[in-house]
Amino acid sequence: xxxxxxxxxxxxxxxxxxxxxxxxxxxxxxxxxxxxxxxxxxxxxxxxxxxxxxxxxxxxxxxxxxxxxxxxxxxxxxxxxxxxxxxxxxxxxxxxxxxxxxxxxxxxxxxxxxxxxxxxxxxxxxxxxxxxxxxxxxxxxxxxxxxxxxxxxxxxxxxxxxxxxxxxxxxxxxxxxxxxxxxxxxxxxxxxxxxxxxxxxxxxxxxxxxxxxxxxxxxxxxxxxxxxxxxxxxxxxxxxxxxxxxxxxxxxxxxxxxxxxxxxxxxxxxxxxxxxxxxxxxxxxxxxxxxxxxxxxxxxxxxxxxxxxxxxxxxxxxxxxxxxxxxxxxxxxxxxxxxxxxxxxxxxxxxxxxxxxxxxxxxxxxxxxxxxxxxxxxxxxxxxxxxxxxxxxxxxxxxxxxxxxxxxxxxxxxxxxxxxxxxxxxxxxxxxxxxxxxxxxxxxxxxxxxxxxx
Length: 454
Hints:
The protein is of the alpha+beta class. It has helices at about 20-30, 45-65, 65-85, 120-140, 220-235, 280-285, 315, 320-330, 365-370, 410-420; strands at about 35, 40, 105-115, 170-175, 215-220, 240-250, 300-310, 380, 380-390, 395-405, 430-440. The chain has two domains: about 20-85; about 105-440, no CATH class.
């Protein structure tokens, strides 16, 4: 991430470079390169570029012929930095908030905040400050200027200095409690917007529930994501406090060059049935709220459902493969529906075995979640692991389930009620946390988060 302006770093050159090593380094000078396996552009972090400059810098410069070559190499390095940074940035401003239909990054830091003020002007000021900070951090720049006062705390916590933007997105929403009358906005609360009902089998823990404001920070580097959330919490002091937080992960792009569907901690692919985010009409139908839905300030926004789902991993690990596949309704290795060969083969709930039994058990997770196919949501979930539960001696690990939908109750609640009653997966999971947030539309240049509401 860029410094308060652009922090230049110098590596320590090594004085002995073989011709072979020099050739290898010169190959790296062509970055960013195409990934031969995925066919995708492969971004190079600033840290890697600086490391390249430090390790092979002297050999490259001397091989190029002195001071002129030194300047040329430095200029090439700066150019590569700029290009890599640009490819690594997801714009903060736009019609819709980033982080919803944006391809899921490797890591998440999620936080719910409670407001500590009853002054609407202070809340508006907080959203304005958060907007400026978010636009700065997602662009890969530290907050503030290079004119720091030694007698005051730094304007940025600093742990992302020198790191790439890492495709950071920051997504904001407000919970039902935001409209409790403190700010004179009760009349603008969306009709029917309320906390989720308690579903059959829920074992909710208050420490993982609710919040006046929800903030989803996603990035391809966990330290960069944490940096963003930490700075938002620092900026909020005196106006809002953290209520709960949860970090999450999925397989990284580096670990899966093919970019296949991520697997959850039960070993099955998670998100195969997601709608196609590249289809604008599908997103309009399923994800983005319309001004006609009411209220007008939510137009181009979306509703977020968050569930902290603990997995009984130790029990699952003792179950047979056949039982596991019947539980999900998919083959574990390929992700294909039972009886099919490929992950994205069409699900046929009417298909039967030679003995006349349904190939896909009616109580399997996929059968209940799919239903007749008319109702869908956009899943954006991450695995989590929070260490050992000392009361049970088992792992506190599972799924931070996040979904986006145009209508919470017609879509998410409708599906979850069926799952809560009959899903075979309930034997291996328990819902411990729950929250919902109305996510604002995107922010225009010169505007701020929530300006359509305020």
